[in-house]
Amino acid sequence: MTLSPPLPDPVQLAIPLFVALVLLEMVAVRLRGVGAYEWRDAGASLALGLGSTVAGALVAAPVAGVAAFAYQFRLFDIPFAWWAFLLAFVADDLAYYWFHRTAHRVRWFWASHVVHHSSQHYNLTTALRQTWTGFVSLSFLFRLPLFLLGFPPEMVVFVAGLNLVYQFFIHTEQVGRLPRLVEAVLNTPSHHRVHHATNPRYLDRNFGGVFIVWDRLFGTFEPERADDRPRYGIIRNLPTLNPLWAAVHEWVALVRDLARARTPGAALGLAFGPPGWKPDDRSLTADAIRAAFVREQAQA
Amino acid sequence: MLLLSALGVLLLTGMAWLLGFRASPPLTAARAAEEAGRIPGFRPAGVHLSADGRSALVEAEDGALAVVLPLGDRLVSRPLPRGALPQGGTLDLGEPFLRRVPLPIRAPGSRQ
């Protein structure tokens, strides 16, 4: 069995389902009293999602060009076969794990990705709160190894779309824990709530897209705890619900910090160090926050 | 397609409004203290609420201060630099969208 191009865009196909499920979740929040919505926050998330689609369309050609260029130097000729799609799906999710981990650990990439975390709510609209500046931060480079291995760009775009669609469903508080085997292998609403939380024990954890096994393998897994309910957002929550500011605020802060940097080393640290890093003793990185929390727990 | 998506955004935002997701719970001392407690290393000891509920000044055990402001149904907090006590009923944080914060209360220890 072969699946040849042109392949459909899974995200475009899923949009009606997204709309229906957001409506259903709103009703569920009203009826069950579990989870939360705020109309301006939801509007901002949806507007950011729309803007992200436009930004993606604008840079699609250069990204496709880079992919095609890398594909020329491929190691293998991987056919459009079902097993290749499965392999591509898993390999793409591994590439996503490393992209996502880097997006939280390196400020340059965080400046784009922070948009997705900038809501203090966690619902299906948060899933659509996506960056407009992923191209600027060169996040597409993380998929280059797939093209160099020999996965055709069309196949990678298709499985990446499936990955994105899967991740929509896990942005909800309506689902508690799933069966143990599912929680062991897949990224679930519970695991991803941890990822979106600012509680010190949850910071920079659970980076997986579809499979949580990457986090278990690379030491970044943290389970959700009943005695430490996730609090969503970022360490320094935005003072506005304006989507434009959500889209660019960290880039603005980065440029301002770079303009004030006194040494090349400080500038490098500010751009490529972890978010919250400062060239003096005012650093407030995720590692520092967690270390302080662990010290407090040990003393208690 | 873009127009359809924009209409979808308006529809869902409107539905959120219609379903009543527009409440802003009052800023209470307990909520302000909890919010300030999210600031790493900040252990709230006392809360000074403004009369109109537009802000709160939270004092930590070590004397540090933080301001807490409502944002929709959530809150936003900012630690204040030591010695940066509010002057004239406002606080100048110098941050986009948070330049001047109304703080119609006296800061603890201020001599205004």
Secondary structure topology:
The complex is a heterodimer of chains A (300) and B (112).
Chain A: H1 10-32, H2 39-71, H3 82-105, H4 107-117, H5 124-128, H6 144-149, H7 153-169, H8 180-185, H9 189-195, H10 213-218, H11 243-260, H12 264-272, H13 286-299
Helix pairs in contact in A: 1-7, 2-11, 3-4, 3-7, 4-11
Chain B: H1 2-18, H2 29-36, E1 44-49, E2 56-60, E3 65-71, E4 74-80, E5 90-95, E6 98-102
Antiparallel strand pairs in B: 1-2, 2-3, 3-4, 5-6
Give a quick summary of the entry.
The complex is a heterodimer of chains A (about 300) and B (about 110). With about 300 residues, chain A is mainly α.
Shape of chain A: globular
Question: What structural class should be given to the helix and strand makeup of chain B?
Answer: alpha+beta
Number of strands of chain A: 0
Number of extended strands of chain B: 6
Helical content of chain B (DSSP H or I, runs of 4+):
10-25%
User: Helical element count of chain A?
Assistant: 13
* Shape annotation of chain B: elongated
Instruction: Please identify the oligomeric state.
Output: heterodimer
Keywords:
heterodimer, A: 300 residues, mainly alpha, 13 helices, globular, B: 112 residues, alpha+beta, two-stranded antiparallel ribbon, 2 helices, elongated, disordered C terminus
